[in-house]
Design brief:
mainly alpha
Length: 301
């Protein structure tokens, strides 16, 4: 019987010792509705891949937290809701709305949780738009309350490497690396080395582009001239093949005979000798052109 009594009282020791009849029972803290909504949003995001529903659930959870007093639990739930919402927006290819969506709940950029700010930097850096978060991150880093956070050094380094260097802000990057007490000596040297490397690469790229040979005007003119000559050669070949075809020559001969009959041309007349000579020259040219197309190599030799 004693063992049974000791066993039944064991769970009560965790609440501060055995309860007396005059002491009220301690109530366990109620679970926030936003916690259940957070679990639902995570399930919609990861399991069901229903990104619009996950985002809508996060927004409903934020509305339920509006009347809740500030506490560590509320702060953690808000941060987790932002993480799920950011992932849902990115999955729907609405990543450009991420920063504005986050700032509608954290009106002050200095109050952004470090994890949320890190996700924003990584997202916009990956999408090659680091300038979108430049002002927000600068404001967060300059806030004195944030400079004592353990995540400050990693966020400052991320800001230098992912935002300032891609934007070519070398002076600001060096000022942050040298003036921030959050950097250790080894970390500061690594950041400064990254700044020097990025600056050197940026100065070498214009030189390499200038050293590339540019086509001269004479060369471009020659290319255009050769293209024009090839086009004219193809056109002339097409016209010549049409003119030298057998039906065309027969038609030309018939038209000549008809012209002689109509004009009553007398070949024996001395005045007709120039015309006969020109006509003979025309037939020789036609014969030579025909042979040149049939036997080009033989005539060339």
């Amino acid at each position: 019987m004693k063992s049974d009594a000791s066993t039944s009282a064991a769970p009560l020791k965790g609440l501060g010792g055995p309860l007396r009849s005059s002491e009220p029972a301690r109530a366990l803290p109620a679970v926030l509705p936003a916690v259940h909504l957070l679990e639902e949003a995570s399930d919609l995001l990861v399991v069901h891949l229903d990104f619009p529903a996950a985002l809508e659930t996060c927004e409903r959870a934020w509305e339920s937290l509006a009347e809740e007093p500030a506490s560590d639990t509320v702060v953690e739930v808000k941060c987790s809701l932002c993480v799920v919402g950011i992932q849902a927006l990115a999955e729907m290819d609405r990543w450009r709305e991420v920063l504005s969506w986050v700032l509608q709940y954290y009106q002050d950029p200095q109050k952004l949780p470090p994890k949320v700010l890190e996700l924003c930097i990584l997202l916009y850096s990956k999408m090659q738009e680091p300038g979108t978060v430049l002002t927000v991150v600068d404001a967060w880093l300059q806030d004195p309350d944030n400079q004592g956070l353990p995540e400050y050094g990693s966020l400052a380094e991320l800001h230098v490497l992912r935002v300032l260097l891609p934007l070519g802000r070398w002076s600001e990057a060096e000022e942050l690396a040298l003036g921030s007490a959050a950097f250790g000596e080894e970390q500061r040297e690594e950041v400064l080395q990254a700044i020097r490397t990025a600056r050197q690469q940026s100065t070498q790229e214009p030189l390499s582009s200038q050293e590339q040979p540019k086509p001269s005007q004479e060369g471009s003119f020659s290319c255009k001239l050769m293209s024009l000559l090839r086009l004219l050669h193809r056109l002339w070949g097409s016209v010549a093949s049409h003119l030298l075809s057998q039906p065309f020559r027969k038609s030309l001969l018939a038209a000549l005979i008809l012209c002689l009959l109509v004009l009553r041309f007398d070949p024996a007349s001395p005045s007709s000798l120039p015309f006969i000579y020109q006509l003979a020259q025309l037939f020789r040219w036609i014969q030579k052109a025909t042979l040149s197309r049939l036997y080009p190599l033989a005539l060339r030799d």
